[in-house]
Write a structure and sequence with these properties.
There is one protein chain. The protein is of the alpha/beta class and 394 residues long. The protein folds into two domains: 118 residues, Rossmann fold; 266 residues, no CATH class. The chain has twelve helices and 19 strands. Helix 3 packs across helix 12, helix 5 crosses helix 7 and helix 7 crosses helix 9. It is globular, with a radius of gyration of 22 Å.
Length: 394
């Protein structure tokens, strides 16, 4: 995770009214206090404590060559007014920013979660498993977020699986058999355990993984779905279908909520409701978890369960990471509702005509995040220079 530096900005007229604020590294009220800051490649949070400080924020960004800044405002002392001015000034300088407006300084924890989400994306180390060449999407990801994406070929990944720690693989089997109900035989579960062990061994070297699962399951007739379900339950971000777009949203989800989010296909839209599904989901995001067959292949194993959350946020990001679709929805029903789609399924009520998805979605996959984090995600998008597309009927 990129280091985070939190700087408070306050006018000299208000300086005496500011007490020590936990989590703030330094309070600045003059240009002289901007000198000698140890920022390096840190991600900077500018806490706007009063009006009259937008010029100081602009000077900070200009002096230290910042590419992005998170602005945090509150209702008192003309803080929001100054934050809006600062955002306009930063835009003139070519600096991306977003404003998170909190109800009081007692809510700074919310701002710190947003900051950690951004810092977790910047410089992240990602491995794509079962991929032979680096795609344009991977290069966009690297360029946009100063990251490193490594390619681990299918042959190299298969070798990792063949040499996986057998003890870790057996522990995985024991855990799954005690955690979920199997409605198919478990004779191939140790094979999934070896996939899990191979992937688990890559964390530390990498911060997140994405596996090109379909070529693997077609060749070996067993899916990685349960391995991903367990890894994401552990807080180790693992995306399927080599999907960096979904991985990006999952990293954000983990920092904002403690859950990785659920990668979901878009299956149907009718009225205000949309149907989403996928054959894997983090085990801690569902109740009544059951192991069944994988939908497309009929191979072992797919996972189904009921979402544990009544309200969710959906996020979908474009191939070039420059557009982000966002919606808020309530969960109407979830579980294995149909045999004609991927096994974990959810009917979501978007509160608007759901056909808006056909017009606005950047691509198929949406990461479904527990709770209403629309404002937080919008702010993150602004800081990262991503255009927000909200799913509304107009």
């Amino acid at each position: 995770m990129r280091r985070i530096v939190v700087l408070g900005f306050v006018s000299p007229l208000h300086r005496d009214r500011v007490s020590v604020i936990q989590g703030v590294d330094k309070v600045i009220s003059s240009e002289a206090e901007l000198k000698g800051l140890d920022l390096g490649d840190s991600f900077v949070v500018a806490l706007i404590l009063s009006g009259g400080v937008s010029r100081l924020v602009g000077e900070l960004a200009s002096s230290y060559g910042l590419r992005r800044v998170l602005l945090v405002s509150h209702p008192e002392s003309n803080s929001l007014a100054s934050a809006l001015d600062a955002r306009a000034l930063l835009s003139d300088f070519g600096v991306d920013s977003g404003i998170l407006h909190i109800n009081s300084l007692d809510e700074l924890g919310r701002a710190f979660r947003v900051a950690r989400a951004v810092a977790s994306i910047l410089g992240i180390r990602v491995a794509l498993l079962g991929v032979e060449t680096k795609t344009s999407m991977a290069r966009f990801f690297e360029d946009r977020f100063e990251t490193k994406v490594d390619i681990i070929s299918m042959g190299d990944f298969e070798e990792l699986v063949s040499k996986a720690d057998e003890r870790v693989a057996k522990d995985f089997v024991n855990y799954l058999q005690g955690k979920v109900r199997f409605e198919v035989n478990s004779e191939r579960l140790l094979d999934v355990g070896r996939i899990y062990a191979a992937m688990h061994g890559l964390y530390g070297r990498y911060d997140a993984l994405a596996i090109n699962c379909f070529p693997y399951l077609i060749k070996h007739r067993v899916t990685p779905c349960l391995a991903l379900a367990r890894l994401n339950e552990e807080g180790l971000i693992a995306a399927c279908e080599a999907d960096l777009r979904a991985l990006f949203s999952m990293v954000i989800a983990k920092e904002l909520t403690g859950y990785s989010g659920w990668i979901a296909n878009t299956n149907h839209v009718q009225g205000n409701r949309a149907v989403f599904s996928h054959c894997t989901v983090a085990l801690n995001m569902v109740s009544d978890a059951r192991v069944v067959t994988h939908f497309e292949s009929g191979f072992h194993y797919g996972l189904t369960g009921k979402l544990r959350f009544g309200e969710v946020t959906g996020v979908s990001v474009s191939n070039d990471f420059r557009r982000m679709g966002i919606f808020k929805a309530s969960v109407v029903e979830s579980g294995l509702l149909s045999n004609r789609m991927c096994r974990t399924q959810a009917i979501l009520d978007l509160g608007v005509d759901s056909s808006v998805i056909l017009r606005l979605a950047p691509y198929n996959h949406h990461v479904i995040i527990p709770g209403d984090v629309v404002k937080e995600v919008e702010t993150i998008a602004g800081v990262l220079g991503i255009e927000v597309i909200k799913y509304t009927s107009s």
